[in-house]
Amino acid sequence: MDQHQTNSFSGKEQGPPDVPDFDLIRPVGRGGFGEVWLATNRTTGQLRAIKIIPLHEPGQTSPAAREIASLTRLQANLGRHHSNLVTIHHVGKTARHLFYVMDPADDVGGGPASNKPNYQPASLQTRLQAGPLSAELCRDYACQLLAGLASLHAAGMVHRDVKPANCLFVDGQLKLADFGLVTEVHPLVSRMGTQKYMPPDGRMDIRADVYAAGLVIYEMISGLPVNDFPRLGHQANCVRNNLALAKLLRLVLHACERVPERRPVDAQAMLAELAMPGQIARPSPGRRLLWAICTAAMVAMGTLAAWNFSSSPEGVCDVSFVTQPYEAKIYLDGVLQCDPKGNAYTTPCTVRNLRTRTCRVEFEYAELPRWDAGTYDLVRTKQIVAHYPDQ
Amino acid sequence: MERLGDGANALAWDEFFEQYWPTIYGFAKRRGCSEHTAEEIVQEVMLTIFQHRDVYQYDPARGRFRGWLGTVVRNKVAEHRRRPANRLRGVGGNLDKDSLDNCALDQAADQQAPDDAWEAAFEGGLLLALLDVVRRESNARAYLAFELVTLEGLSGGEAGRLTGLSRNAVYKANKRVIGRLMDLGATYREKGQLADRIKQALKHRPPAAVERSVTAQVQQTMYSR
Q: Which residues of B touch A243 (CB under 8 A)?
C-alpha cells in the first residue's frame, strides 16, 4: 500500500465513511483501489487498519467487486493463515463501501502502531528510502516475503502486485499485503499490477510473482530504484565481499530471467535455492536435462502428496461462487442452496461440503429472472464466476 | 519539444524529465552546488520549460537544443548565486552548510568556464542515457558482467561468481555490451577511452536518494499544474 497522498473520499463526502463498530481516525495509505484508514474498535479500543473501497452500481465491473472476488478466492483456497500474510479479521459492507479490517502496520519511526498524529505505517518501501539493507536483513526479509508468497502459490493463487509498498511490518515481521489483485493460476490472467514490477513477457502467472519478488530483493541489496535493475553501483563492493549478498544476487538474476521458463517455478523454489549451501553452479546442458527430469519427478510426487494431503474427503468439495451483480441466490440442478440454518446462500460466498457431481448452476438476483451459468463438474471446479447475461 | 507543447502529454514529460534531469543536476554539482541546491535547480528548470512549452519553437537553424537548455540551466544557477539570502550568508562569514556551498560555487566557477561545464555535463548525460539503453536491451547477467568487469574492475572469475556465468561467458558478455555501446555512441570513440568516460559520467550520477526525492518533487509540482 502506498503512502497516503490524497484523500479521495473526503472530497466527495462529509467526514470519514461510516464503518460499523469502528471509529475511523485518519487515512494512512492507499491501496490498489481504495484507502486504508487507521481505526479503533468502539468496544475493545483496539487499533486496526481498515481498507475501504467505494461500491459502485451493481453489475458494473467495480474495484469492490474485484476485491470481493479476490478475498473470496483467498478464503476458499488458502487452507490456513500464514504468518507472512497480513491477517484479515473481518470483511463487511455498508451502503456505499466494502471494507475489511486488518492488523495495523508498525510505526515507521519504530514501535507498534499508535494513534499519534505522526504515525505512518512501516513498509519495505519506507525502509528502503534509507538505502540498501544489511546482508542479514536482506536475507531475513527475502525469506519472509518468499514464505508468504509461497503459501499463496501452494494454494494455486497469484498475488500480481508484489512490491515493497505491499510488504508491511507488523510486530517486526514482514507481511505481504493488498490482496486486491489476487487470482487463481490461469493462462488468461489479465495484465494488472504495477508496471515497474511486471515481467517483460507480460504473463501474469506465478512466474510473474517470482519476477517481481526478484526485483524487490534487488532493491533490498542495491538500495537503488527498481528502474536501475541490474545496476549495483556503489554496492558492487559490498556484494563482492559478502557471501550472503552474493547468493541473493544470483537468486535475483535467476528470478528475473526474461524467459519465464528459466525462472524458478514458484516462491517455494526460490526459498529452496536460497537454502542450498554454497554457490549455485549452472549445470551443463547434459546435466540440465537430468535436473529437469529429477525436478519434474519431484514436482509430480509433491503435487500428488499435496493432493492426497489437502483434498477434501471423497465425494465432498468446497466451491466459491462469484457473480456480477453480487448477492445472487445459487441453484444447483434447480435446488436453492441454503446454509444449515436454512438461509439462502448469496454470492460471493463459498459453499462447503457440496456433493461432488456434475450439475447445472443457476443464479437469481433480486427480481431478475434466474439465469443459467452452465454445467460444471464440481470435482474440477473451485470457483464459478458468472455475469448476468445483460451485463 | 513538439510533443512537450502538448501539456497533457504526460509520457513526453516523463521521458524528457528522465533523460535530462541527471544532466541538469550534474551541471549544478559541477558548478559546486550542494545536493539541496542542485535539486532546487532541477525543479526550477523543469518548471520553466513547462511554463514556456507554448512559446518555445524548436528551430535547428537557430541553434541546438542543448544550447537552449544550457542557457536556461546556467541562468538558474546564476539566479541562485545572486539571491540576497545567499549573498548575505556569504558576506557575513557564517560558515554554515549553505555559505560553504556558495564558496564552492565561486571556486568551481573560476576553474571551469560555464559553457565547458555545460558541454561536459550534457555529454556525460548522453553517455548515461546510452548506458541505460544498452542496460535495458541486454540480458541482466550480461550487463552486470560488464558493470563488474569494466566499471568496477573485478576479474572475470569474480564477476562470474556473482553473476552465475562462466569466466568465458563474462568476457563475451562484457565485449558484447561494450560493442553495443560503441555502436550507439560512435562519436565518443575518438575522444578517448569509453570506459573512462563512462566512469567520469557515473561520478556525477545523482545518488538514489536524490533520484527519489527529485522525482517525487518534480512530479508533484508538474502534475499539480
A: none
| Cβ separation B212–A129 shorter than 8 A | yes
pLDDT tens profile A38-56: 999 999 999 999 988 887 7
Q: How far is CA B35 from CA A63, B70, B211, B213, B219, in A?
A: 42, 19, 11, 11, 18
Distance CA A147, CA B29 (A): 44
Q: Do residues A152 and A79 make contact, with C-beta atoms less than 8 angstroms apart?
A: no
Residue A69, pLDDT above cutoff 70: yes
All residues of chain A having their beta carbon less than 8 Å from the beta carbon of residue B202 are 233
Provide the total of helices (H) and of strands (E) in chain B, helices listed first: 12, 0
- HSE-CB for A354 with a 13 A CA cutoff: 30
Average pLDDT taken over every residue of chain A? 82
Residue B36: per-residue pLDDT? 84
State whether B143 and A246 contact (CB < 8 Å).
no
Residues of A within 8 A of B163 (CB-CB) are 249-250, 253
Residue of A nearest to B209 (CA): A129
Task: Give the span between the Cα atoms of A341 and A323, in whole angstroms.
Answer: 23
Closest residue by Cα to residue A74 from A233, A144, A66: A66
Q: Which residues of A touch B223 (CB under 8 A)?
A: none
Give the whole-angstrom CA distance, residue B42 versus residue B123: 17
Beta-bridge partner residues of A40:
A23, A47
In this structure, of A75-84, A142-151, A255-264, the range with the lowest mean pLDDT score is A75-84
Q: What was the ipTM of the complex prediction?
A: 0.74
Residue B144: closest CA among B160, B166, B157 = B160
Average pLDDT of the residues in A224-245: 92
Task: Note the pLDDT tens digit of each residue in A104-127.
Answer: 999 998 889 998 888 999 999 999
Residues 6+ apart with CB under 8 A from B61: none
CA–CA distances in Å: residue B123 to residues A281, A284, B13? 40, 43, 21
> What order do you get walking across the sheet with A88-93 strand by strand?
A2-3, A22-30, A35-41, A47-54, A97-102, A88-93
* Cross-strand partners of A184: A157
**Block residue for cell numbers 463498530:** A21
Tell me: pLDDT of B161 over 50.
yes
Residue B208 has pLDDT above 50, yes or no: yes
pLDDT (0 to 100) of residue A249: 97
Question: pLDDT tens-digit profile of B98-130?
Answer: 433 443 444 444 455 667 788 888 888 888 888
Mean pLDDT in residue range A226-243:
92
In the predicted structure, residue B56 carries a pLDDT above the cut 80: no
Check whether the bond before A348 is cis (ω within 30° of 0): yes
CA distance, residue A245 to nearest chain B CA (Å): 9
* Distance (Å, whole) CA A352 – CA A350: 6
Q: What single DSSP character describes residue A72? A: H
Q: What is the pLDDT of residues A215-232, one digit of tens each?
A: 999 999 999 989 899 999
Q: What separation, in Å, do the N-terminal and C-terminal C-alpha atoms of chain B show?
A: 19
Q: What is the pTM of this model?
A: 0.71
Q: Which is nearest to A96 in space by CA: A198, A14, A18?
A: A18
What is the rounded distance in angstroms from the CA atom of residue A363 to the CA atom of residue A386?
8
CA distances from A150 to A24, A212, A299, B146 (A): 33, 13, 14, 33
